[in-house]
Amino acid sequence: MKVIGLTGNIGCGKSTVAAMLRDEGVATIDADEVAREVRLNDSDARAAIERRFGTYDAAELGRIVFDDPAALADLEAILHPRVRGAIRARLAELEQGGVEVSAVEAIKLFESPLADACDQVWVVRCDPADALRRLATSRGMDEAAAQRRIAAQSSQEEKVAAADVVIDGSAPLEETRRQVERALAALTSS
Question: What distance in Å separates the CA atoms of residue 162 and residue 7, rounded to the nearest whole number?
């Protein structure tokens, strides 16, 4: 099974590209969804989060951790090992099920050992103004909150420099789709 690592900064269009991959028959795993499942269903993780933060409510955790890099690191130390384990288990299930291509959508892919499990890493990049606009429109964030979320990530330039494939998330949707189709065709023919 070929595995695509799909990453890029918040608001750049990773989820849009993941949906395009699903349209092409690629099985996708969203690390954010897996993290939510772990946060809500793993009793040990939930207890550790509540001990550290006094809550496991996603909105409240977001307000806490995106204003405090040490708190974000603490939350990631609780969640990320469990999330990686769950993603690896899902990849194994997909491979055993005969899936030919899968994708892992993860904002911090390069910061994770999961990058090593990928045959290619695709980075969705976009104009920073587009990312801010999308965060305001689709997630209801004010500019200050969006800037904090963006600042909590590694730079877009670092991700692009390390990418096997770069997808332009600021392009018109049909052009983005053509980029995805070309990159997928190149991966599956190799």
Answer: 11
Taking 90 as the threshold, does the pLDDT of residue 35 lie above it? yes
- Paired tokens of 142: 């004010």
Q: Of all residues in the chain, what percent are helix, strand and coil, respectively (each to 5)?
A: 60, 15, 25
The Cα–Cα gap between 120 and 15 comes to: 17
* For the chain, domain boundaries: 2-189
Q: What residues form DSSP beta bridges with 2?
A: 101
Residue pair 121/109 in contact (Cβ under 8 Å)? The answer is: yes
CA contacts within 13 A on the Cβ side of 86: 18
Which amino acid is residue 139, in one-letter code?
Answer: R
> Which superfamily does 2-189 belong to?
P-loop containing nucleotide triphosphate hydrolases (3.40.50.300)
Q: What is the pTM of this model?
A: 0.91
- Per-residue pLDDT of 115-125, as tens digits, reads 999 999 999 99
126: phi > 0 → left, psi -120 to 50 → alpha, else beta; which?
Answer: beta
127: number of Cβ within 10 Å: 13
CA distance 170 to 131: 9
The pLDDT assigned to 148 comes to 81
* Count of Cβ atoms closer than 10 Å to residue 63 Cβ: 14
